[in-house]
From TrEMBL:
The protein's name in its UniProt record: beta-glucosidase
Stretches that traverse the bilayer: none
Statement: the UniProt record of this protein carries the keyword Signal: yes
Span of domain Fibronectin type III-like: 639-708
Family: Belongs to the glycosyl hydrolase 3 family.
InterPro entries found in the cross-reference section: Cellulose_Degrad_GH3, Fn3-like, GH, Glyco_hydro_3_AS, Glyco_hydro_3_C, Glyco_hydro_3_C_sf, Glyco_hydro_3_N, Glyco_hydro_3_N_sf
PANTHER family assigned to the protein according to its UniProt record, in alphabetical order: LYSOSOMAL BETA GLUCOSIDASE, PERIPLASMIC BETA-GLUCOSIDASE-RELATED
Entry EC number(s): 3.2.1.21
The keyword Methyltransferase is assigned to this record: no
Length: 720
């Protein structure tokens, strides 16, 4: 008998309560003897869950550790009448115990291979700890750095986000979930458009056309599903006035019918019950009805399904076949993970000891952190001379708060701080706290000045504590806290070169930092090996290669500012632009302080001899754009070469540039390489007014360069 038939037979045996139980996800504390160390990431509430519901529940949120998960599973299998195994799900976003840089940093590496490896390692450490599903990758496109969760995304570009989405799903899931018990199922989130919350305020309204949603925000979710992602998590926000978690168009018409997704859909934490405050359900019963009919299979951490689904089905308000479909999807996922054959899957205390935080995992975390840092400014002070006396000053100088807000089981005590890392490279280090994240005392400043005066160069380690970022970590003012700006001013008086290292989860307004520093290295939250990676970069053991995947605004007043914007009818930089009546601010520039794709190196790359193979691109054929790149500096380095394309005139307005390709090359000093990009008609397709996804014949410009502003353009025409 086929597995499908076996599952259908099992479904036939299930009572209504047992079916509904599969749709209930509970946090660890609900399970006997599980302890209270389960991860709680949302508003916990008195859910009034019965013992019977626990016995019938289908999955657990936030349990971890082979011992704990084996115990919960064993107890559950004894108590569940049909011995249906639990699914264990948790947020393993950028590492389990070995924490990698936050995804926004990983995005800046433009390194899909290392990203995939990081997900593979995270999956391995999670799987031996008994986790079956991770709530990742988060692929929400972001354009507003006030939003706390931009750190969880890979940035503002649909194409790049889609590439990372695929790489992370491959890393988490491997090639065979059933046989590879050191993989985990991925759950792409948050479906959909969560990053477009108005005002950059978490959980806020999202308002955009279906066309823009399809053009910019949906591609990365679709990429995850095309890569075989097993689960989808609904977003908290509305889409065109309907909350995603109750949005039948989004989940049934688009996700299931149009995209053909038949995996499991889980709500975000409490999002089913939140249909009430959103205002499309009067009570939990209506919320349960709307969410299930819209397509939510598992309700996370509220009890609308538990309390009302039975009644709704017995009253005929919700058809039992809808419930059966949801149960079958959940049972099928359990089957895909091999849980009916082996409910403990990869959980193993022995393997935990062998695998978790092993040296190879730490080395990979260090390498990815080195590639994820972005050199924003350098007047030549970097790389540091190891013989120089270096004062390391600031709230992050020796801080272990460098794992980021979604590091859950990451152990900060295991993190390599900046000071620890630098000690390995220099015997002439001194330290001063300088200030706290948001407070400074005269004594701290006095001590910092004293230490700085005895040094040749000052490394200022500044930033946001991890609670100033992440979920519900939104900031209207995205400058560094005043205490830190005051510290910079005091350090300037000492007349020593200042190297500023930033630890933060978002693009910042760098007023008070950019002018005042001789060099700036953006380190984001660099993870367990962060301090070691940064030290290697500062002392030139490796050369920075990261490039921004999210624009740094000139100030918060510019937000949203992103590279793939439209030209408008009165572009400020048009040749015939008037003085006043153009699209501009009276008080700040239009351009971001630092654009998408920007990042410096310790060497210099010269682009020249760009050529298009043809001026005309015939449908069904391709042309190529080639460019010669020479390392004209004294140090070897990596350069991320970018290809952008502009559709000069379309059925709707088209972005000034769209990333369509990138390649990383390594060049020795004096070395030249030619990089070629293939351009095809498929890359020119977009959503028309009637939502048809196709290209138009006509004029295009292909751009190649080292960032979205420093490019050379080449005209070509698409013809039949
Ligand atoms: C949180 C987050 C979501 C996470 C979930 C479970 O509210 O929005 O990303 O996966 O709860 O922890």
């Amino acid at each position: 008998m086929s597995k499908q038939h076996q599952l259908e037979e099992l479904l036939q045996q299930m009572t209504l309560d047992e079916k509904i139980g599969q749709l209930i996800q509970l946090a660890t504390p609900f399970f006997k003897g599980a302890g209270n160390d389960g991860q709680i990431t949302g508003p916990m509430e008195e859910m009034g869950i019965s013992e019977e519901t626990v016995r019938n529940s289908g999955s657990v949120l936030g349990a971890a550790g082979a011992n704990q998960t084996i115990h919960i599973q064993k107890t559950h299998l004894e108590e569940n009448r049909l011995h249906i195994p639990l699914l264990f799900m948790a947020d393993v976003v950028h590492g389990y115990k070995t924490i990698f840089p936050v995804p926004l940093a990983v995005g800046c590496s433009w390194n899909l291979e290392l990203a995939e490896r990081s997900a593979e390692i995270a999956a391995k450490e999670a799987a031996v700890s008994g986790i079956h599903v991770t709530f990742a990758p988060m692929v929400d496109l972001v354009r507003d750095p006030r939003w706390g969760r931009v750190m969880e995304s890979t940035g503002e570009d649909p194409y790049l986000n889609s590439q990372f989405s695929r790489a992370l799903v491959r890393g988490f899931q491997g090639s065979n979930l059933k046989n590879d018990t050191l993989s985990v199922a991925a759950c792409v989130k948050h479906f959909a458009g969560y990053g477009a919350a108005e005002g950059g305020r978490d959980y806020n309204t999202v308002n955009m056309s279906e066309r823009q949603l399809r053009e910019s925000y949906l591609p990365a979710y679709k990429a995850a599903l095309d890569e075989g992602c097993e689960m989808v998590m609904t977003a908290f926000n509305t889409i065109d006035g309907v909350p995603a978690t109750g949005n039948e168009w989004l989940m049934r018409e688009l996700l299931r019918s149009e995209w053909g997704f038949n995996g499991v859909l889980i709500s975000d934490w409490g999002a089913v019950k939140e249909l009430i405050p959103h205002g499309i359900a009067e009570n939990e019963k209506e919320a349960a009805s709307k969410a299930l009919r819209a397509g939510v299979d598992i309700e996370m951490m509220t009890a609308c399904y538990d309390r009302y689904l039975k009644e709704l089905i017995e009253e005929g308000v919700v058809e039992e076949c809808i419930l059966d479909e949801a149960v079958m999807r959940i049972l099928t996922l359990k089957e895909k993970l091999g849980l009916f054959d082996n409910p403990y899957r990869g959980a193993s205390e022995r393997l935990e000891k062998e695998v978790i935080m092993c040296e190879e995992h730490r080395r990979q975390a260090r390498e990815l952190a080195e590639k994820s840092c972005v050199l924003l400014k350098n007047n030549g002070i970097l790389p540091l001379d190891k013989e120089k006396r270096v004062a390391v000053i600031g709230p992050f100088a020796n801080s272990d708060d460098i794992l980021g807000p979604w590091s859950w089981l990451g152990d900060r005590k295991q993190a390599v701080t900046l000071y620890n890392g630098m000690q390995k490279n220099s015997a002439h280090l001194t330290f001063a706290q300088g200030c706290e994240i948001e407070r400074v005392t005269k004594e701290q400043l006095k001590e910092a000045i004293r230490v700085a005066e005895q040094a040749d160069v000052v490394v200022l380690a500044l930033g946001e504590h991890s609670e100033m970022s992440g979920e519900a970590g939104c900031r209207a003012d995205i400058q560094l806290p005043l205490a830190q700006l005051e510290l910079i001013k005091e350090m300037q008086k000492i007349k020593r070169p200042i190297v500023t290292v930033l630890f933060n989860g978002r693009p910042l307004d760098l007023h008070g930092v950019m002018e005042e520093s001789d060099a700036i290295l953006e380190a984001w939250y660099p993870g367990t090996e962060g301090g070691a990676a940064i030290a290697n970069l500062l002392f030139g053991m490796c050369t920075p290669s990261g490039k921004l995947t999210m624009s740094f605004p000139y100030s918060a007043g510019q937000i949203p500012v992103y590279y793939n914007a439209f030209n408008t009818g009165r572009p400020k930089d048009a040749p015939d632009a008037q003085e006043r009546y153009v699209s501009q601010y009276l008080d700040i520039p239009n351009e971001p302080l630092l654009p998408f794709g920007f990042g410096l190196s310790y060497t210099t790359f010269r682009y020249r001899n760009g050529t298009l193979s043809e001026q005309k691109l015939k449908k069904g054929e391709t042309i190529s754009l080639s460019v010669e790149i020479t390392n004209i500096g004294e140090r070897e380095g990596d350069e991320i070469v970018q290809l952008y394309i502009r559709d000069v005139s379309g059925d709707v307005v088209r972005p000034l540039k769209e990333l369509k390709g990138f390649k990383t090359i390594h060049l020795q000093p004096g070395e030249t390489k030619t990089v070629s990009f293939t351009i095809s008609e498929e890359q020119l397709r977009y959503y028309h007014r009637n939502l048809q996804f196709k290209s138009d014949n006509g004029a295009f410009i292909a751009y190649v360069g080292g960032n979205s502003q420093q490019v050379e353009g080449f005209y070509f025409e698409l013809i039949d």
